[in-house]
Amino acid sequence: MRQDAHPIPLSVRALACPPSPDHAETWLRQIFSAHAAQGGVVRRSVAWVDREVGRDRFIAEVRRRGFHLITSGNQFIVVCHSGPVQILF
After folding, report:
1. Partner of 24 for a Cys bridge, out of 33, 51, 53, 56, CB 3.0 to 4.6 A?
2. What's the pTM value of the predicted model, to 2 decimals?
């Protein structure tokens, strides 16, 4: 079997092997140190978040920073400020 071929789909493997704490910290630091995270918006696929840090850890970090978290389809949208947010339509 080729090294990149795996009988278990990635989404299932991600659930079976939670990310290491060191990897999760590095990933979160990179995401929230990006220019977009300085008062802007960060968008990430839910599956990617699940795979890289785990959904609970990501939600806890957004909450710890006082940011707003929105889901739309298969995306997480983080509004990187603590001020009010209004969904217009």
Report:
1. 53
2. 0.71
Helix axes 55-65, 21-33, angle to 10 degrees: 40
Average pLDDT taken over every residue of the chain: 82
Q: Is residue 53 within 8 Å of residue 27, measured between CB atoms?
A: yes
Helices first, then strands: H and E counts in the chain: 4, 3
| φ and ψ at residue 43, rounded to 5 degrees | -125, 130
Enter the DSSP assignment of 18. P
76 contacts 70 by C-beta, under 8 angstroms: yes
Contact between 52 and 24 (Cβ < 8 Å): yes
Listed in sequence order, the DSSP H helices in 1-89 are: 10-16, 21-33, 46-52, 55-65
Please say whether the beta carbons of 73 and 45 come within 8 A: no
Q: Which residues of the chain have pLDDT under 50?
A: 1-2, 4, 6, 8, 10-14
